[in-house]
Specification:
The protein has helices at 108-112, 116-119; strands spanning 3-7, 10-12, 18-25, 34-39, 46-51, 59-61, 69-74, 79-84, 93-100, 122-124, 128-132. The protein is mainly beta. It has two helices and eleven strands. The model has no long low-confidence stretch (mean pLDDT 94). Strands 2, 4, 5, 6, 9, 10 and 11 form a seven-stranded mixed β-sheet that branches. Strands 1-3-8-7 form a four-stranded antiparallel β-sheet, with no helix packed on it. The chain is globular, with a radius of gyration of 14 Å.
């Protein structure tokens, strides 16, 4: 049974940092694309950062987080991370970890740019709240 469990969210002041973790079980992380999505109140869910499977290793970042966020994974721990620096109030939202069920996605951008219908083909965690506020 596939499980994705996020942790590391919280309340942080603007300019601060957080590191989100997503512990995966029930499948082997290196062989599947994985990503971080977020949903702010009243807004649609958006792909923040994604990473393709190891055999086509590449990463994608939403324009608004480039240079501030870094996605990484530890295959030995089957865990993916999102290091978030220089946080802004507009980064506030629930952050979700997602993984493709079948290794089909050709690029990291393809995962992050998925339509709502396409994302129903992913496995999802329950999310972790990130609040950036003074």
């Amino acid at each position: 049974q596939v499980q994705l469990v996020e942790s590391g969210g919280g309340l942080v002041q603007p300019g601060g940092s957080l590191r989100l973790s997503c512990a995966a079980s029930g499948f082997s992380l290196p062989y599947f694309a994985i990503g971080w999505f977020r949903q702010a109140p009243g807004k649609e869910r958006e792909g923040v950062s994604c990473m393709s499977s190891s055999d086509r290793s590449d990463t994608y970042y939403l324009d608004s987080v480039k240079g501030r966020f870094t996605i990484s994974k530890d295959n030995a721990k089957n865990t993916v991370y999102l290091q978030m620096n220089s946080l802004k109030p507009e980064d506030t939202g629930v952050y979700y970890c997602a993984a493709e069920r079948v290794p089909l996605l050709p690029t990291a951008q393809a995962m992050c740019a998925s339509t709502p219908v396409e994302t129903t083909e992913y496995d999802w965690g329950h999310g972790t709240q990130v609040t950036v506020s003074s």
